[in-house]
Amino acid sequence: MKAQRHALILTLIREYPVGTQEELGELLRAEGVEVTQATLSRDIKELGLAKKVMPDGSYRYALPGEKAVADVLRRAERVFQDAVVNIDHTENLIVIKTLNGTAQGVAAALDDLEWSEIMGTIAGDDTILVIVRKRDQVAAVLEQLHKLRR
Fold this sequence. Notes:
Structural class: alpha+beta
């Protein structure tokens, strides 16, 4: 029962922005699992869950290795502002020029954003190739990339 409850807790915190033990308890009850506050507290500790800050300033439970969205976004903004020199595109490809030696770090920050429109990135020393899934998504991706530079 405990392993099933733990698996359900992990599923719930991935699907919902659960910020409190009470919210988690309500979600578990909605799934037919009755749990006391003490048991829930113990489960949270055993699973190693921690509260992470969201972009709107609220908190939610997450796995310890899970990157907080706000942290990933701040890192991407910082590296884009510090290292990106130019952004250009053709068809469904975007080329990002960076300062020498920074392309791989910028590409890693972009990959961490996990934008569904981006199939992948390839980075050299000062150039990143961004492969966008569909040509009609390029404008939206470009807009987001330019926002990161502001």
